[in-house]
Amino acid sequence: MPRPKSYDRTEAVERACYAFWEKGYRALGVRALQEAAGLNAFAIRTEFGGKEGLYLAALELYASEAEREAMAPMKDGGLDTIIEFFENLVTETSPTSSQWGCLMVNTGIENADIGSPKLASTVQRYWDSLATHFRQVLLHATETGSLKDTVNIDELAEGLVTAAMGIHSKNRSAGAHNAGRPLVDILRHYLESLRTS
User: How far is CA 187 from CA 53, 73, 114, 153, 169, in A?
Assistant: First the structure.
């Protein structure tokens, strides 16, 4: 009969997520990861398949929370929901604003050197999901006649994803929640200019 676990898996993944988010994948040593997650080396190996497996679980948690909290309002919303999404990236009281930037952006940048296909796939799924949410808003706005019909929806959706990456990167590099504010202001004015009235 297997021994009962002495830890809560969800809590351990959440704690690991914050540690990876703050420190990065390579910089976070195994011992520091064990302390942060409240797991021993055996648990990390058997439950997650090692450090990368725990990192992937942390990324999945991060993505699911972002989709539930930050992206969900865009499913049935108008341009205001995109503007609100970007405003939240630079508002200190928002759960989507962080001095550490975005775990997915950080992972994508770090993985350019690591070269893990699993990390690359997880990060790409996240950005694809965000682009899909932006596209839904823009399509809805077009269908309701509130968006100018000259807008290339696919290009704009992908451009907004890139803008989100840039805002998070600026926040991270400056170590401040609101460092990306200038780009958010530009985006807000641009999106407002696309309204039909």
Answer: 36, 18, 32, 15, 16
Cα–Cα nearest to 58, from 20, 112, 28? 20
Q: Quick one: DSSP state of residue 195?
A: B
Least Cα distance to 147 among 84, 107, 192 occurs for 192
CA dist., res. 189 & res. 194, Å (int): 9
Kindly list the domain boundaries of the chain, sorted by start residue.
9-193
How many residues are present in the chain?
A: 197
CATH topology assigned to domain 9-193: Tetracycline Repressor; domain 2 (1.10.357)
Asked whether the predicted pLDDT for residue 1 surpasses 80, the reply is no
pTM given for the model? 0.92
Secondary structure in 3-state letters for 51-106: HHHHHHHHHHHHHHHHHHHHHHHHHCCCHHHHHHHHHHHCCCCCCCCCCCCCHHHH
Summarize pLDDT for 94-141 with one digit per residue, the tens.
888 999 999 999 999 999 999 999 999 999 999 999 999 999 999 999
Percent of the chain at pLDDT exceeding 90: 92
C-alpha of 115 from chain center: 19
- What tens digit of pLDDT does each residue of 75-97 get? 988 999 999 999 999 999 888 89
d(CA 100, CA 174): 9
